[in-house]
Protein: ABC transporter, ATP-binding protein
Organism: Fructobacillus ficulneus
Amino acid sequence: MTEPVIALNDATVTVANQTKILKGLNLEIFPGDFITVLGTNGAGKSTLFNAISGDLELSSGTISYQGKNITNLPAVKRTAFLARVFQDPKMGTAPRMTVAENLLLAEKRGFHRGLKNRHLTAEKLAYYREITAKMGNNLEDRLETAAGSLSGGQRQALSFLMAIQVKPELLLLDEHTAALDPKTSAQLMDATNHQVVDNQLTALMITHNLADALKYGNRLIVLHAGEIVLDVKNQDKDQLTEEDLLEYFVH
Ligand SMILES: Nc1ncnc2c1ncn2[C@@H]1O[C@H](COP(=O)(O)OP(=O)(O)OP(=O)(O)O)[C@@H](O)[C@H]1O
């Protein structure tokens, strides 16, 4: 049987006053899974991501990466196999560095970062032009522009490319299109889907958009009050409707 990339086993996160914000969660993420993650505000979606990334400690339970127990592995070490894209376009890119410099920096994910002894060769620039062009929002014409001067959509596309520059074993997309206008959001979502499929990435994507959650990915989970209340894949997912999903939001 295929080994999960990440497995959470009875994962519980408890915060001050003993409130459990993840309650004994079990989840196996398999290679190639593209899982959309839904849930009401406060359901525990970001907490799940923080537990996987190591930004929040489990109070009980375990997390494994390819069969190895990583429950106590610090977040910084997990960046060797995990990458995350946030909702806020300001996160994930260095604003004063150019697009090309940001991409160069991203080649060091999981290692000591720095641009010392590293150069933007003509070859690299040509490669960056090629990968940015695939995002479909003219980022390829702005390789010499400081990331801080890009549009929100371009900046999120750059954050996304930086996250996959070194192929992560798991990509965490934390509402990465939510801060964008509807058209830009749809465009980035479409580019995201192509990248995930073409590069055979394993990804978890938090979204509040029911249509996107149904349209993209092979698997869908719904969180409620720190628990997974729905986990469907393939044909079962294909048969779901927005009306079915809305039932999970009437609380
Ligand atoms: N460090 C923390 N300390 C105390 N409570 C926390 C902490 N982090 C999250 N919470 C609480 O845990 C619950 C789950 O929060 P979380 O951010 O994971 O929800 P979410 O599903 O991502 O919500 P949203 O859709 O609003 O982003 C919330 O009630 C939140 O207030």
Summary: The chain has two domains: 6-81+168-249, 97-161. The CA atoms of residues 67 and 105 lie 30 Å apart.
